[in-house]
Structure formats: C-alpha cells, structure tokens
Structure prediction request, 1020 residues.
Amino acid sequence: MSDNTKNDAPPERPLKAYAFDPSQGRNLGNYMTINVRNEALQPGPVGKYLVVIDYDASNDTYYEPVNLDDPAVLLRGGLDPSESDPRFHQQMTYAVASETIRRFEFALGRKAKWGFRGGRRTDPNRYRLRIFPHAMQEANAYYSRDLQGLVFGYFPASETDAGANLPGQTIFACLSHDIIVHETTHALIDGQRRFFMEPTGADTPAFHEGFADIVALFQHFSYKEALLEVIQKTGGLIYRLNVAPEVAPADGGPVIAPELSTENPLVQLARQFGEAMGMRAALRQALGTQPNSKDLEKLFEPHDRGAILVAAVFDAFFSVYVRKTRDLMRIAKAGGATVGPDDLHPDLANRLAKEAAKIAGQFANICIRALDYCPPIDILFGDFLRALITADYDLVPNDRYQYRAAFIEAFRLRGIRPQDVASYSEESLRWCPPEEMKGVTAPVCKGLDFDVFSLPTPAQQKRNAIILSLFGKNNAEALGLRPGIPVQAHSFHPLHRVAPDGGLRVEIVAELMQQTEVHLDPNDQQSEKFTFRGGTTIVLNREGQVRYAIQKSLGKDDDQNERLRRQREYYYAMDAISGLTTYLPPPPLDGRPMNFNLIHRGY
Amino acid sequence: MPDELDSNTIRIRMYRVGFGDCFLVSLPLTGDAGFRHILVDCGVHGKGNIGTMDEVVDNIGTITDKKLAIVIATHAHQDHISGFNPEKFGKFQIGEVWMPWTEDPKDAKAATLKKKHVALAAQLNDHFEAQAFSGARVSKSRAAAAAAVANLVANKTSLQALHSGFGVDARVRFLKAGDSLQSGDVPGLSLKVLGPPTDEKFLAKMDPPAGHSYLRLDGNRVESANQLRPFSSKWEIKPTDSDLQNLRLSEAERKRIKDEVASDSLDGLAFALDKAINNTSVVTLFAFRGQVLLFPGDAQYGNWEAWLQQSDAADILSSVTFLKVAHHGSVNATPKDALEQMSPGKFAAMVSTQSTPWPSIPRGPLMDRLKQQTKNKTIRSDSLAIKDIKAPKGPVVSKLPSGFVKGDFWYDYFIKL
Prediction:
C-alpha cells in the first residue's frame, strides 16, 4: 500500500491518539501512539481508503483540515491529544480507522472493500469511506451506507450526572477509540457481507453490533502500556471487571484517590460516552455475570443480544489466556512469589502482557477470518460458531492450545445452539463439503481468473461473476440453491493465507444469492409482500473444487420452511416493538438496510 | 339477545368521539336495585375531533343520573382525558377516580418521570409549532410526530380536575400492576390491575432517551435548544476556503447530510415519548358474575410485555369475554401472543378508532385477525355514521353482530349474565 510513496519512505507513520477516551486522562496508558501504514496523504486527511471531511451539519460549517505531512506535525509524531483542536480529532479518527482496516486486511489476506457503490462520477472521493468527525450535535455515532461514511456526533455532558466529565463539557464521540473501531467495523463487515445489514431475525442486527464490539475490545489488548498497567493491578487476572487500588484501603474504607479501585478499562467500551448516555450496561452485565442460557431467550435489543456473543468470545479468549499463562504463574510461585496485585515482578508482567497481546491478536484474526465462512444472509450466532471452528481448523488443523474447544464451551454455556448439528463436537460443528451433505460429487468451477498480486480488473470481475452465476445455476441442487431461479454472484474474492506451517493457502470465496417474493401472511394473498432471500457461501480451492457450501436455502413457501417462518415471526415482532411504526405507514419489510442511526439511539 | 339494561345484563357503551376513547360500563345490582356505572376515559384528540364530545358527556349524565361509581383515566393523553371538563363533571356524584401510579404526585419516581415527560413534550411541541408556522415543508413523519406531541400537551385542566376528584370528594387512587381491588359500591365486582408495572426495568423504558440533539434532558428538566459550537471560531473555515480542495461537499450533499442527521431524531424522540406515556396506561381486568372484561387503555408492547410474562397470563387471557382494543387498534398495542391466547369466539371486541389524524391507524391485519378471533363480534367506532356530523368513514357494517346495538352516536354491547 505504498504505491504513492518513494522507496525510501518509512513503512509506518506514528500518530497519537487516546487509547480510550479523554475522560481517562493520562491514567492507564491512555496516551498512545498508533503506527499506521504510511501512505501519501492530502489535507483532511485523505488517504487511499479514507477521507475525513470535517463538515458540521448542525452548524453548517467546516473545520480546518489537518495536514499530517506538515513538518511541524511529522516531527512531533502527530498532533498531541487535545479536545479543543479539531485537527487532532481528524488525526485520531484517521489513525484508528486505518488501524482497524489494517487488522481486517491482515486477517482476511486481501484488500478491504467498502459496501457502497460510490457516488457521483465527478467526486474524487467516491470510493473512499467518508468520516465526519463532527457531523451533528447529537449523542450518537453510526455507519451509514447512504452517506458512504461514518457519522460522529458531539453533545454537552449532563449538568447533573456527568460521571467523570465536567458538567456541560462537550463530549465527542469521535474521541472514543472504541466508537471509531466499532463504526469502522460496521463499514468493513458491510463490505464483506452485504446482506448482513438486512434484519431477518433477532440475531442479524445483534451480530453486527456484537461483532463490532468484539473487534473494538480485542483492540484494547494491543495497547501495551494500558495492558501492562492492568496486568500489574489485577495480578495478571485481566478479565476482572475492577482493578485493585494502588494502596489497599484501611478498615474505614478508602480516603485518598490511590485507595479507590477503578474499573478495568480493557473489558469495557466507550466509557465516557456511556457515562454521558447511561448506555452500555449490557456489556458489563454480560461479561460480569455467570454465563446462562436464559439471556438468549429474552434479550432482543441488538446491543443487549450482541453482548451475549461478545461475552462468549471473550470467555473463550480468557480461558485460553489463563491456560497459556499458567506455567508462568507456577514458575513465579515456585520462586517464592505470592502472586497477587501488589507484587507482580515486572518481568512476569511483561511476559503476561506479551502473551495476552498475542492471544488477543490471534482471536481477533480468527473472528475476522470467520466472516468468510459465514452464510451470505440471515446469520445466527450458531452459524458464527461453526464459521469460527471451520475457519480456524482450515488454518491450524491441530488445536494444540484448544482454542476451538474454548470457543465451543463458551458458546455452549450461553445456550448458543447451531442448527442441524449432531453434537457440540468439533467434527460435527465444522461445515462440510457438499458430497458429505448430499452424497453428490462436489462440482468443480473452472475458468475463474484471480490474480495473486493485484485486485481483479473490472473485466476480470465481470467474467468471474458470470462464471460463478452459471456455476450456481448449473449445480443448484448440489449447492443448496433452488433450481429454476436466477443466481447472482456477490462478494467474491481470493483468500491468501499463510498457515503456521508456512504454507500459502489460496482459496476463493463467493456468495451465490437467490430471491423470491412472498407474502407476510402465507394464508393471506392480500398481505404485504417482502423479498425473501436464500443463498450459499461457497469456498473453492485453487482447482475450483467446492470445499464448503454454507447454505441458507430458499426452500419452498410452505409449512416446512423453518427459516421463512422465523423471518415472518421476526417481522411481526418488530412491528410490535417499534414505536416508529405506530403512527407511520409500515415501512417496507425488506430491502431496507438496518438503520444504525436508530439502533444506536436505542429504540 | 338483550338490547336494554336489566338486572341480568351488562352494557358497554362505546361513544364515537373521533380519535379518542370514551367507554361507559353499566353493571346491574342484584334484585332490580339499579345499576352502577364506570366511565373508562373520556377524551378526543384535537386533530381527530368530530365534535360530539359535549353531547357525549350530556348523554353520560342522562343515562347515569349523574352518578358514576368509578372514573378511570387510563393515562394522561389528550385523546383519553380531554373530555373531563371540571364544570360538567363537577355536577356529577363520583365515587372514585383512578389513575396510573405514574400520576401520583407523592411518588418520587413518578414525579420525576412526569416532570421530564411534560417538559419534553412542551419543548417538542414548541419546536414543531414554530416549524409549522415558518411555512417550512413538513414531512409525513414530522406531521405524524407533531400530532403525537399535540396529544401530550394542553391537558392541564383535565388533569387538575381528575387529581382534585372533580371537587366532589371523589376518592382518588393511583393504581399499579398487582393491585387487586374490591369495590364496596359495586357488589360482585372484583378488579385486578395488570399494568402499569413499577419495576426498574420497566421504568427505564419509560425514560425518554436523554442527551438528544438540541433538546437535552437533564435530571428533572429539559434544557433549552442551545446550539453548541464545539470549537473556537478560529477553526471554522468557509466552504469557499482553498484548504478544502477535494473535501468540499456539493450543496445537494450538504442538504442530504443535514436531512439524514437532523430529521428523524426529533420525530423519533416524539414517538418514543408518546409510547412512554401510552405505556403508563392502567390496564384493568373487571370480573363480574362470570364475565371478564379487559380494558388495556393505550398500553403498548412494553406494558403488555410485563404481565404477559406472569404465570397466570394465559389463564387470564383465555378467560376474557370482552376486550377494549388498546390504542385504537394501532400496530403495536395488541401483542400477537395475547390475542392468540384469547379463546376464539368467547369474547367480543370494541375498537374506538378512525384514520384521522394517523392514516396507519387502525392496523388492517389486526382488525382482520380480531374479527376472526371474536368470530365476527368486533365493532369499530368509525363504522357509525352520525347525523349532521362529518367524520372519517370506516368500513360499513351491513348487519351488526349479535349483542351489538347502534345508537345516535354510540354502539352498545350487551352481555347477558
């Protein structure tokens, strides 16, 4: 990605940012430097993937764009953190979003792509994700496919209940590291899985929210300073919700600041924003309580439900962390140390931090890679578990440190049950090739043209789309598609991955989609119609053989069609919960992507 | 079938007021000792008023001999209480006045919530009215939101009258889910209050979203619509500034962004607030000599949800013999679960509704399902044409289902005991 830079240009560009948000002050490693990939930038910044446009719609004004190539800025390693200088805000959103994109590209083994089609031809930024750091005076932030960008708001903190903020102080959503990662992740998922934004069941919007939180949380473990400090203060138990005070308080309770215990910033999200809004209690609840299978049956608000997924993934992560660091703890104890918050040896803390960061990186990669193994539409939490297991198995067949076992156990404890599997064993959770499912020979797709080193040209893309559509049409039965209905190929890309054994894996993943119109009430031909989609994610190997066909079949419009029945139920339920539909004509049930604008407001 | 009141008959009269609710329940006393009357709501929305309210209140006075055992104001919305005119009702003899606990001035939680609701409604109303006055184009969504907010304001007189027991020494009671009452004045009547609940989770839902754009809720008050300038003016640059280069947005795009980020937010807030008030509705279940009458006010999903989760919900629902359809038959006021659990053909339903001011009310599929579940014993107030009154027309009823009788500006439903 250094196409526009000279050969001797450094590979990275240091930029300063808050590790959490301004309310954390300098505590717990809050001032950090992100080394983003160096690329040629114009003022904005405007890079290859991103354009930061500091337009404020509430005040109808622009704020001065930052020039990150200005020597005065370069020499300092980027502007220093500041709440009052909008140019720092632009720098931070650019840096954090770039870092998130890099994470995705690293895990997926290909270039990132956006889910919008690009606006006016004359717009030089039509293929860039637009970031509006101060778009509006409102306590909200969201990804909008329509606006092709991330929209961040600002608002005054509460006068009476401002938490750690000054009453009335302006809170900026764009200075919350977590919120930037979260929204960028929404945009990145949309680029990989276009139909995940269609709410077809309670799990789909919850998945979008939960996944974005997972990526944001794992990012925390890459901040070395913050991590080290938390490890010191928790005695290595980084999953604890609170960190111990610097000095143990006397019997009468704490009297000075160092005696107060504080919340562990690693396991919470967007604290400043949350304190100002009274939100995000769900995550704390999910991570801080005993896992149970009841929550899944009663939580349907996307953030609440998404928190279950987050808790499951983090349970797996912390289980592996504990398992992999037990030897270090034992060594420390053998040396006579009592391992506790007060007296962790700095070397031990360093080693623990290294392990935690490494495992967090691996988990984030597994989760992101699993996106390629998800069905193209209507994702359930159970499908995601199967995708995780399969994605990881493909890359690391022997599971020495039991990552997959940890995932399975954590999901099982939370009542997440994949459909159509015989048991929670790894073998039955893995997606299987079509011949094992249907007893037919796996068809071979010939003639696809992917270049290992560069993005396909439009002509190549078009050709590949035709080949894939035809392939789907001609092998409908074997691939779980309905014969006689047109097949469209979406989001197809090559995957290149280096497995731990050093081998390079090249595969092709594609979505084959079908759709049909059905009535909301199957017994009433007068009732509203909606587009019901079905489809299959196929993973092909280099020879074009189908390795996996991950299916959400269209099926028939009859009583046997469980998925269709569930979708109908969901539409009914949505009607019942939404306050917006009461006074307005019901919006079309489908074809309307999820409105993150409203989801993030919480109603 | 009976078509007049006798000692073995219950009569439920639904008045056609426009967009609003006014139901009079008359229960017989044993041995020809007369009747006891319960008035459930009396109000009409300013934008859906067909002008019958005065006659309605007069008719109530006539047929009850100005004696009401109980007056229930299910919740503080104009379309449920605007008719409680203190002058007219001050001449009645009224036993008790019931309101939801959220109206209780002595309850600290209720008082806080109420202050917020009232202040926010006033702010929104001012804002919407100012916008309408400026002649700006009003979107469909905004019009619907403005009508919802109008429903929340200008209720002061009625509320004062209710709280003061109409100045006629009526006993004022505030009800919450779980209460069960025996009315000494109406022998044989027992009451169960199903909503509104008082738990924290429910309360959280009642809280209008805080920290919203120009209108900001803070503790008990709403702060005015101050525009915040987040940065010192030295950072602001003109759209023509050369620094912007490729960052400049076109006029059309700026408008698009403004529309997207600004518009829904206030409408959404208005709808959320409206829903919150609807969910304060008192939900009463009357049991009288084997009949079970359910009056859910305007309860929307959040209110229903709380008691549908209770273990006795299925028993209650299957025993219902009369349903006042909640919230004028809107989309999210009759949970599918609830309707499906009621016994088909065992109950009758009345819907006080019309398509003005909100064309999406009542909800077609719900009306159809009601007809099926009641085996046709459903009647809509807007199917009634009233002499010399121009009003939105609902579907024409050629033959009234059994038990229903048409009046000058009301429908009666008689239940033989």
Observations:
- Chain A touches chain B through 73 residues (CB under 8 Å).
- Chain A has a mean pLDDT of 82.
- The longest strand of chain A covers residues 504-519.
- The radius of gyration of chain A is 25 Å.
